[in-house]
Amino acid sequence: MSFRTLITAFILSSLLISCASQEEMPPVFPTYDPFLPVDGTLQPISPVSNGPTLTGQPTATRQPTPTRVPVNISPLIGIQDQIILSPTPNPARILPTPRQDVDEYVVQPGDTLGGIAQRYGISLQSLLDANNITDANLLEVGMVLVIPAPNPISISSALKIIPDAELVYSPSSIYFDTAEFVAGQNGYLADYTQDVNGTLLSGVEIVMLVAENYSVNPRILLALLEYQSGWVTNPLPANVDYPMGFIDENRYGLYRQLTWAANTLNRGYYLWRANAISTMVLTDGQVIPVDPTINAGTAAVQYFFSQLDGLEAWEKDVNETGLAVTYFVFFGNPFSYAIEPLVPDGLTQPLMSLPFGVGDSWYFTGGPHGGWDSGSAWAALDFAPSDGSAGACLISPTWVTAMADGYIVRASEGAVVQDLDNDGYEQTGWVILYMHVAAEERVQPGEYLFANERVGHPSCEGGVSNATHVHVARKYNGEWIAADGTLPFNLDGWVSSGDGYEYNGFLTRGSLTIEAWDSANDFNLITR
Prior knowledge:
The chain is an alpha+beta fold. It is built from eleven helices and 23 strands. The protein has helices at residues 3-14, 113-120, 124-130, 164-167, 178-185, 203-214, 218-229, 254-273, 296-306, 311-318, 323-331; strands spanning 83-84, 103-106, 144-147, 193-196, 199-202, 279-281, 287-289, 338-339, 361-369, 380-385, 400-401, 406-412, 415-419, 430-435, 448-449, 454-456, 470-476, 479-480, 490-491, 494-497, 506-509, 512-515, 525-527. α2 (113-120) packs across α3.
């Protein structure tokens, strides 16, 4: 019996095919987020082993508060009690019923035929055929397209490949040393370097940069990198240009390949979490149903391969002899890292305030939209200062203020990450991301901020932004928490909601409702 056969036999006994219940959330529609970096630009931080030490001191501009409490930075405690060794068996979820009737769509500015086909869960070819289009580039705003009903085949996969905690940058990743693991494999990745936005980064630094920004577990990134190209163990892999297998000249090199992969994994994960996906379209045009008994982490992997493969290759990738073998050889049984539930039922948001000073008035410019790039949950809201700096994309003299008490774990390239449970790990508990914060006078890693203390100045720094503003998003145990889901933002009593379209949305407090608008108007001005 071969080594591969032995491994496969063990995996079959370990990865029990079962079902996992998921909390239901309103649909998420994957679209490009122009205010966040498609590729990410933040600098990585060094791994922590026993928790960080507080080094920052309150500045002279901060006002002491009588409610200060000791900061408790300590190693992770209690996660071991939540670890399971096999998928949790739960009743199959009820997936949305695939559309049975022909639909119509009016082309909007920025639309592409490929994007429209993806939105409706059909192949590009079926969309072209239904509209007698021979040139996919000939698309005009206002054109009415016939949208055929999807015609899924009867093939799906119920094998749970990884738990949710191994897809998300979750507590399960805390004690994993990416640098040590990669160095021990002696592959191409160990000596790889690449210029990323003007900074020369190693392969490990690129993996961690993507893992942190997109909140995707570095283990799944490494397993996919090995499975797709052998970069982790092979010193001379054949494919050094497109190691994740996505052939696109705009995604050349490790960095852009990994950002594409992380964004694609996130899209599959959060569509499943939102109960907004029931079929997947493969590259050969086949439409396959999603098995209702899989979990979000597995849906993410299946979706990733659907963007690369036709039916025959996809079936191999997602069964017990595909990626599961590589993952097991590298890291053992993936469900030995599972933390379930990753986001507990009944979870509540801690007290949070609007991200600007008491008495200040800012514009509510962005309703629920991607936390990081287009594939993540609609976890973010946008606010712009009312001092006139927004339209000119200047650094505003006004201040972004802390929405809650917490330790600053990262601050660079426009982003500030605040850990609210004070253990020093952004993979655990509640975390707030503040984006587009200017480097000048920005809070530093290692400092502790109490609610209402100064984070920095809003700007256009970090990623792609056409106006000065601050973008705020929440994570829990590494999972992006949707602003239009079952756990919306509550900021000084203002509760967020959406209407099914990215960037549209509302903040409601009592009988007052403010609608998001991408400009300065009296009706989207909110005073704290």
